[in-house]
Hints:
This protein is an alpha/beta fold.
Amino acid sequence: xxxxxxxxxxxxxxxxxxxxxxxxxxxxxxxxxxxxxxxxxxxxxxxxxxxxxxxxxxxxxxxxxxxxxxxxxxxxxxxxxxxxxxxxxxxxxxxxxxxxxxxxxxxxxxxxxxxxxxxxxxxxxxxxxxxxxxxxxxxxxxxxxxxxxxxxxxxxxxxxxxxxxxxxxxxxxxxxxxxxxxxxxxxxxxxxxxxxxxxxxxxxxxxxxxxxxxxxxxxxxxxxxxxxxxxxxxxxxxxxxxxxxxxxxxxxxxxxxxxxxxxxxxxxxxxxxxxxxxxxxxxxxxxxxxxxxxxxxxxxxxxxxxxxxxxxxxxxxxxxxxxxxxxxxxxxxxxxxxxxxxxxxxxxxxxxxxxxxxxxxxxxxxxxxxxxxxxxxxxxxxxxxxxxxxxxxxxxxxxxxxxxxxxxxxxxxxxxxxxxxxxxxxxxxxxxxxxxxxxxxxxxxxxxxxxxxxxxxxxxxxxxxxxxxxxxxxxxxxxxxxxxxxxxxxxxxxxxxxxxxxxxxxxxxxxxxxxxxxxxxxxxxxxxxxxx
Length: 532
Ligand SMILES: Nc1nc2c(ncn2[C@@H]2O[C@H](COP(=O)(O)OP(=O)(O)OP(=O)(O)O)[C@@H](O)[C@H]2O)c(=O)[nH]1
């Protein structure tokens, strides 16, 4: 029967079509397809990106419209061309959900504004390009305008230049780098950049004669920045690894970046993003061009204060001036270097295998990877240590440092930047490292090497309230080593701890708290460590 054959053909077609949709593919077919494709994507190692070069460009303003509305009563016509829309901005948003810069693109362009149209209709505003960066991002300026902290504003009044979604600067939140920050060279040069861009009527024409837009600028910036012009930028390469997909092509960028960096003058630390949700405007969208309706309006009011001006009426403008007024302005451009410096109250520093990650797990709810081999920790782990009265402290566990790390031995010392801003240092030493004929380093030598490596990374980095965690006290013979350690290292509190069994942890927590609260101020001093 023909209808039977048609029904069979139809069901066969449905069966074939089902393979085109991934949701309808039967499981056996899926496994078959996977085997044909050849592989499940292998996990590859990839460097964590905690330094990143960025080119940001605001969207171009839309062009203003030049149109005349004619009617029976007005044959000559009245100007009714609308203004072009503002270009979008490039904004960095601080997010706790982002760990590093691996998902960022090097070039960020915001959308351009729409062109104005007749009947005095303003062009649409270009959409902003908002990208998320991790908490603790520090911004260095290579080229362009200094960035400023912004806030999304609610729509207040109907102003064609402030259409909904635009951003407004909160002057109280002008960028300020904290005063207690220490530069690599120890020198700190302050520079205040006042980019106030309130455009007044007087700016209608610049001194060069080029017509300027006189509409209200939506932004007023006061960016306090401190520059470290004499600083040498630390090595770009980040030496720890993360399991993720790889993008080899980006490595080339990093190499160019290092070469360029040597020649260019960088304004260091112009802004910091430390609060989740904080937004930083790095490239502004260009203003839209004026429509002829606005030019007429503006030129009339302008005429009263500047009788001799050429633009007494828009109809008298020649072609060139008209074009310059109606063309949307390009967005601003900026070249930036983003650098991530984790923010934690306590930094755990120690040699590989000292038990830092185990300790972090014992004092906080963090669950870092622990292994009996060196360099288990390949990227910093942050844990939250909460006290019974809900006083909370963040603790950063960074990869192990070995002697010569500043010469790139082991994992290098680039990740030490993550403890640059910690208030307190906890040196974790392995009491059992040199026991039972092991070829390890004695705890006092561990301490000396750690202090030296910190100082090689940044002068004065070890100069902050510190304590020593004498870990693995449970090991046989460790008690004697602990006693020896107390004799050899003075001027700093030493806490015997067994991180695995969480012994000595309450005392350590109390010690950390008194250091953070400023009750204790002892520092580990190289002169007070006795080494054979
Ligand atoms: N006996 C004993 N072993 C410990 C103690 N704390 C840590 N360990 C062991 O020491 C080894 C290293 O511990 P981790 O916490 O990974 O050390 P780490 O300092 O983070 O090491 P890296 O990741 O290389 O920097 C693991 O096998 C732990 O089980 C302790 O208190 N006593």
